[in-house]
Design a protein that fits this description.
The complex is a heterodimer. Chain A contains no helices and 11 strands. The radius of gyration of chain A is 14 Å and the shape is globular. Helix content of chain A is 0%, strand content 58%. By secondary structure, chain B is an all-beta fold. Chain B is globular, with a radius of gyration of 13 Å. Classes of the chains: A mainly beta, B mainly beta. Chains A and B meet through β4, β5 and β10 of A and β4, β5, β9 and β10 of B.
């Protein structure tokens, strides 16, 4: 199965710092790359997403950087807050009719106050 | 509330038993996806239905099956349960090409 590799597995950041999570994908048919945020006991919620025709997308404190040639993308959380403490998943969705999401293994982010 | 409803929220059952998990997609969404989330496997795609028809299969065991009904709700049936089937099971529905929304999940514990 085509994989999405995510790192680091866990991340501890001080309040106000920058959190960076990286993902690499193999399937060149992916045409949509979302990031999901998941709090304990809740389902994944879409945070931000990017299409491969742009190299960067910014929404508030969250930015996706996308490198198509390297097949890598990353999430940057600026001015990290304790409320950002959650598990983050990257994913890819292929352009076929099913369009199922293939997820990375997740990063548990802890932002210290 | 995401608009995707999953029931029950928690389920505890014994090995060898059979359970049914239910998902109601967002109003108007025709696609339903089932995912399994376990500690060591992350979020794994199980199966997708579109307007009542199976569209794609992922890492779904033969002991598991699903269906989508005319009112678009979906059920995931898990049989001959094993301890390793303990996990969170999520349903998601999709609107258009990219509008995925996940439910809050069903936590299955097999004892």
């Amino acid at each position: 199965q085509q994989q999405v590799k995510q790192s680091p597995q866990s991340l501890i950041v001080q309040k106000g710092g920058i959190s960076i999570i990286n993902c690499a994908y193999e399937n060149t048919a992916f045409d949509y790359f979302p990031w999901y945020q998941q709090f304990p006991g809740k389902g994944p919620a879409l945070l931000i997403a990017i299409r491969p025709d742009v190299s960067e997308k910014k929404e508030g404190r969250f930015t996706i950087s996308f490198n198509k040639s390297a097949k890598q993308f990353s999430l940057h959380i600026m001015d990290s807050q304790p409320g950002d403490s959650a598990t983050y998943f990257c994913a890819g969705s292929d352009s076929g009719s099913a369009r199922q999401l293939t997820f990375g293994s997740g990063t548990q982010l802890t932002v210290l106050p | 509330d995401s608009g995707v409803t999953q029931t029950p929220k928690h389920l505890i059952t014994a090995t060898g038993q059979r359970v049914t998990l239910r998902c109601s997609p967002r109003s108007g969404d025709l696609s339903v996806y089932w995912y399994q989330q376990s500690l060591d496997q992350g979020l794994q795609f199980l199966i997708q239905y579109y307007n009542g028809e199976e569209r794609a299969k992922g890492n779904i065991l033969e002991r598991f099956s699903a269906q989508q009904f005319p009112d678009l709700h979906s059920e995931l049936n898990l049989s001959s349960l094993e301890l390793g089937d303990s996990a969170l099971y999520f349903c998601a529905s999709r609107r258009g090409d990219y509008g995925y929304t996940f439910g809050s999940g069903t936590r299955l514990t097999v004892v």
